[in-house]
């Protein structure tokens, strides 16, 4: 199952990682944030944050030798320039997603969540071929209705329409998405 190009749905490509900056009195920390699929019973997907780099950045320069401090500040300047270019690239990629970058993120999260279900092969194939949000949501709705029907049969319910459906975190942002509770 491919997401785009040679990247799998199990993780985002490196150029799609979101970075943050944390500054304290002595250091500038660069933190990477990336989505992680849950393997626990609660099935709540999370974002994992990890410190990528710790750069010395003090307000006052120590002692008579400024070489180390100057090299440290040069590293900070280069890191901030690289992060600015990275953010610019992300914005350009997100702008091409029907004009709304957040829809693209929701779709990727939805696809990552659906990878765990048995009815997702059709959804992912349709998404890879069409890459349009409308078509994806149509296929997702059909797949989720089938999931509800299969779940109802397993618990011997006669009417799948009366099956309780729980809201997932994604459904709060995307009204087309439903999640059948465990």
Our estimate of the beta-strand percent is 15-25%
Radius of gyration: 22 Å
Summarize the helix and strand pattern as letters.
EEEEEHHHHH
> What's the count of strands?
5
Number of helices: 5
Largest sheet: 3 strands, antiparallel
Low-confidence stretches: 1-7, 118-133, 154-182
Principal-axis shape equals: elongated
Strand order within the widest sheet? 3-4-5
- How far the N terminus sits from the C terminus, by CA atoms, comes to 25 Å
Total domain units: 2
Structural class: alpha+beta
Secondary structure: helix percent: 40-55%
Give the averaged pLDDT, no decimals: 64
Element layout with pairings:
Layout (H helix, E strand, L loop, with lengths): L1 E3 L2 E2 L9 E6 L3 E10 L9 E11 L10 H29 L5 H14 L5 H11 L2 H22 L14 H5 L9
Please, could you describe this protein's structure?
With 182 residues, this protein is α+β, with helices and mostly antiparallel strands. It is built from 5 helices and 5 strands; from the N terminus they run E-E-E-E-E-H-H-H-H-H. The strands form 2 sheets. It has a 3-stranded antiparallel β-sheet with strand order 3-4-5. Strands 1-2 form a two-stranded antiparallel ribbon.
Structural key phrases:
single chain, 182 residues, alpha+beta, 2 domains, two-stranded antiparallel ribbon, 5 helices, 5 strands
How would you concisely characterize the structure shown here?
This protein is α+β, with helices and mostly antiparallel strands and 182 residues long. The chain has 5 helices and 5 strands; from the N terminus they run E-E-E-E-E-H-H-H-H-H. A hairpin with a 2-residue loop joins strand 1 (2-4) and strand 2.
């Amino acid at each position: 199952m491919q997401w785009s190009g040679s990247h799998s749905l199990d993780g985002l490509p490196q150029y799609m990682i979101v970075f943050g900056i944390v500054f304290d009195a002595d250091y500038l920390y660069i933190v990477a944030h990336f989505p992680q699929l849950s393997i626990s019973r609660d099935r709540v997907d999370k974002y994992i944050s990890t410190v990528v780099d710790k750069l010395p950045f003090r307000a006052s320069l120590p002692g008579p030798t400024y070489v180390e401090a100057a090299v440290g500040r040069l590293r900070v300047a280069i890191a901030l320039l690289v992060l600015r270019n990275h953010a610019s690239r992300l914005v350009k990629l997100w702008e091409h997603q029907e004009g709304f970058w957040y829809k693209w993120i929701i779709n990727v999260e939805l696809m990552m969540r659906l990878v765990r279900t048995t009815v997702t092969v059709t959804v992912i194939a349709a998404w890879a071929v069409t890459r349009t949000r409308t078509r994806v949501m149509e296929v997702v709705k059909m797949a989720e209705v089938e999931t509800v029907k299969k779940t109802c049969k397993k618990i011997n319910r006669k009417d799948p329409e009366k099956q309780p459906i729980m809201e997932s975190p994604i459904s709060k942002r995307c009204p087309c998405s439903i999640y059948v509770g465990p």
